[in-house]
Amino acid sequence: MAFLMWRLWKFKIPVDDRVRRWGVQGPSKCWCCESPNQETLAHVFLKSYTTNRTWSYFCSFAGLNTASLNLREVIMLWWGSDIKKDMKPYYRAVPCFAIWELWRRRNKMKHKGKKASLPRVIHNVTRNIFMLIQLRKPRIRCPLLWPEMLKELDAYRTKMKVTKVIWEFPPASWVKYNTDGASRGNPGLSSYAFCLRDDKGDIMYAKGKMIETTTNTVAEAKAKAILETSKHCNQSNHTRIIIQTDSMLLCKVLEGKWTTPWIITDMVAEIRTYLQNKQHIFQHILREGNQLAYYLANIAIDEGNCILTDYKSIEPEGKKIIISDKLKCPYLRVSPVKG
Questions:
Q1: CB atoms < 10 A from the CB of 67, how many?
Q2: Are 203 and 301 found together in one domain?
Q3: Which of 6, 164, 300, 320 could tie 330 with a disulfide, CB 3.0–4.6 Å?
Q4: Based on C-alpha coordinates, what's the Rg of the chain?
Q5: What pLDDT digit, counting tens, does each position of 77-98 carry?
Q6: Are residues 244 and 191 in the same domain?
């Protein structure tokens, strides 16, 4: 369907008038009309009786006026409609489904001699939109009718959920590393950071460092952060270690539950080597609870490399994060409920 839209936009659909321009001569007959005319791109997809009535049906209920517009302008009108953000994907899908069904109808009539009525075309387009709605918003219950779908989509309000996130103290005699990586662009500036805190929440060591400008992704930067953490851990006297990351992918990979992506295979092997003699736990934490490492990673990009050995050496913004974590102030994550 996407390929058909691309070919249509580039005027590369093999209807008779386009084939003639490519040097292939022959008679022309429009297969989508009972009283055939010459087959042109505009006629097949916009001006024939069935096509015109199909567009009119969907446009009239959507409040769009396509009179005197060409095919590209009709598509752009649907794509650029000033409507609710939640409804934009469905408005943008309508031209795709309509053009696909009109092209299928034309081909059935030309190559198989089968007729597809106007109600059938409208039904097929509506069914495709209905299936898209059910896929994206399964909680919406609406009949297989375009006007009713529009009413339900317009009345629909996304449900939000609030998750409380708290940075937890490590158990007694344990220490906790929080790690993060940042990447701005591909290629672009990248950095990693990690911070070490004891079972009272006091900062013991923190580091943020730039990574040379390459095509590093955020996943690579976060893996680099855990690798540098494991190196620091290997050189320290700490034997009980918790390493937290806001990357679910890395956490599951390092726990051995997910397959390692090839791009970070070497780093994962190094991490395991450095930690093999340590009692360690990998934990996933939401970004809201990983504020200090996130802050340091961005400081490294904005201001350059930094190494911090105590609370006094941290800037006021970082001190606020440390105090909030020690006081167990909750961070709130607000996210839409799927469907």
A1: 6
A2: yes
A3: 164
A4: 29
A5: 999 999 988 899 999 999 999 9
A6: yes
User: Is residue 181 assigned to a domain?
Assistant: yes
DSSP-derived pairing of the beta strands 279-284 and 240-245: parallel
215: pLDDT strictly greater than 60: no
Using CA atoms, how far apart are residues 244 and 232, in angstroms rounded to an integer? 15
pLDDT above 80: residue 213? no
Task: Please check whether residue 64 lies inside any domain of the structure.
Answer: yes
Residue where a domain stops, chosen among 115, 130, 157: 157
Listed residues 106, 131, 157: the one ending a domain: 157
Selected residue with higher pLDDT from 307 and 68: 307
Q: Please tell me whether residues 136 and 232 are part of one structural domain.
A: no
> 120 CB contacts (<8 Å, ≥6 apart)?
none
Q: What is the mean pLDDT of residues 207-222?
A: 77
User: Which class for 154: exposed (0-12), middle (13-18), buried (19 or more C-beta within 10 A)?
Assistant: exposed
Whether 119 and 172 share a structural domain:
no
Residue carrying the six token digits 């893996």? 223
Exposure string of 158-195, with b = 16+ CB inside 10 Å and e = fewer, is eeeeeeeeebebbeeebbbbbbbbbbeeeeebbbbbbb
For residue 74, report the phi and psi dihedrals to the nearest 5 degrees.
Answer: -65, -45
Are residues 145 and 223 both part of a single domain? no
Per the CB < 8 A criterion, the answer to whether 242 and 176 are in contact is: yes
Q: Average pLDDT in the 289-310 region?
A: 94
In a domain, 162, yes or no: no
Q: Which domain holds residue 75?
A: 2-157
Task: Cis check for the bond before 187: say yes or no (omega within 30 of 0).
Answer: yes
289 inside domain: yes
- Tally the domains of the chain: 2
Closest CA to 28 of 36, 19, 39, 20: 39
The answer on pLDDT for 220 being more than 90 is no
Instruction: Render pLDDT for 123-159 as a digit per residue (tens, 0 to 9).
Output: 999 999 999 999 988 888 888 999 999 999 999 888 8
Distance CA 181, CA 255 (A): 19
Mean pLDDT for 241-260 is: 95
